[in-house]
Specification:
Elements (H helix, E strand, L loop, with lengths): L1 H35 L4 E16 L5 E15 L18 H6 L6 H29 L2 E3 L6 E2 L4 H5 L6 E5 L2 E2 L3 H9 L6 E7 L2 E7 L2 E6 L5 E6 L2 E2 L4 E3 L3 H28 L10 H12 L3 H19 L7 H14 L5 H29 L2 H8 L2
Antiparallel strand pairs: 1-2, 3-12, 4-11, 5-6, 5-7, 7-8, 9-10
Length: 378
């Protein structure tokens, strides 16, 4: 029993805290905009399944925390379920009921309500990162080469210690962290690199070698590396306007990097074993929590960006799927047929569940549970 309690404290509690906050932010975005559009909110739930505790406010909204902490939902008046599929009664509502039903709002209002969830996640990440950059500082290393690894890609191309890197793959770099990020995402792909040496600009084409890196959580990733290092690390504190600007840039880089990685997985140039599910997030939350509150807040911001981005994918059942249907309605001037939306919701459910199962399988492999089970029967 003590061992189980220790594991719960190490992994489960940080995971529940991180996920609950990020999910609350997402769902509150839906709630806040829906309320301003005149829509009645019946339920605001953190988690799925049976209610653990909750309360009903003066507007009739049931706020509750449920047993399964893997998401949440806002159920609006006229919804048949947490997935925001319209109830059959929406077609026989009175005019008074229609005024507060989500289904009968103008399409622009429905689009605003749906987009508000991902937007809230992005806004949350920007605010969190901006506060960190103001008070704790942004990790910063100037884009100067301190060391060139012998026989590495950069050494063979002719880069030298003291070179100041100006751009990589056509992108201007302000920090050494920018170089690492771009190179890591371009394993095996030739990229142009511009450096300044003694006031003279030099141009190179480097092909990052593919290396397998084990992160601090034990996960293995195939990334690109050219064999240069920087030995300078500072934490640069920014003024509020600059902190916000840097937070927006960091959020954009997180989004672009995630999209590029997903694209590489689809094209087959990157392994899908990096896809993680709830068990991987729980492991990361527990390990990061041991490093302190600041590290956990960083992780929360990263997860918030990813949650916002994933929900924008045009997959029925996700916010992006609803937005796609509403955009079609906006163009056509009339809603997409109910049967098409129902079929889309079913297909979306299959896709989302399949992805969750696949990600959980990756988690089990990563945590060596599969190897352990195989050992029991071999």
């Amino acid at each position: 029993m003590p061992h189980i309690l220790i594991l719960a404290g190490h992994y489960a509690i940080p995971f529940i805290i991180v996920i609950s906050i990020v999910v609350f932010v997402h769902e509150f975005g839906h709630y806040w905009v829906a309320r301003r559009c005149g829509v009645k909110i019946e339920t605001f739930s953190i988690g799925f399944g049976r209610e653990i505790f909750g309360w009903t406010d003066k507007r009739g909204t049931r706020w509750k925390v449920s047993w399964l902490p893997l998401g949440g939902y806002v159920k609006m008046y006229g919804d048949a379920s947490a997935a925001s599929t319209p109830d059959s009664a929406v077609h026989s509502m009175t005019e008074e009921q229609k005024r507060i039903a989500f289904y009968h709002q103008h399409v622009d209002k429905r689009m605003a309500v749906v987009a508000a969830g991902p937007a809230a996640n992005y806004l949350f990440a920007i605010v969190v990162l901006a506060l960190l950059f103001m008070f704790q500082g942004q990790p910063y290393s100037p884009p100067d080469v301190s060391t060139v690894v012998e026989n590495g890609v950069a050494a063979e191309a002719g880069l030298l210690p003291g070179d100041h890197v100006l751009s990589v793959d056509g992108h201007t770099v302000d920090r050494f962290e920018d170089i690492k990020r771009i190179v890591a995402l371009n394993a095996g792909t030739p990229i142009p690199v511009e450096v300044e040496r003694g006031g003279v600009h030099a141009h190179y084409t480097l092909t990052p070698e593919i290396v397998t890196m084990t992160d601090r959580f034990g996960g293995e990733h195939k990334i690109g590396r050219i064999g240069i290092m920087s030995q300078k690390l500072e934490y640069k504190k920014w003024s509020p306007p600059m902190a916000v600007k840097q937070a927006v840039v960091e959020t954009w880089n997180l989004t672009a990097g995630t999209l590029q990685a997903i694209g590489q997985m689809i094209m087959g140039t990157r392994g899908t074993e990096e896809l993680g599910g709830p068990l991987r997030i729980a492991e990361m939350s527990g390990n990061v929590a041991q490093e302190g509150v600041v590290a956990l807040i960083w992780l929360m911001a990263v997860i918030s960006v990813n949650l916002g981005l994933i929900n924008l994918f045009p997959v029925p059942l996700l916010d992006g799927g609803h937005l796609a249907f509403y955009l079609a309605e906006r163009i056509r001037g009339k809603p997409v047929h109910d049967k098409i939306q129902e079929t889309g919701a079913s297909v979306g459910m299959v896709l989302v569940l399949s992805l969750m199962i696949f990600a959980t399988w990756n988690d089990l492999v990563h945590l060596k549970v599969i190897s352990y089970l195989r050992g029991l029967f071999s």
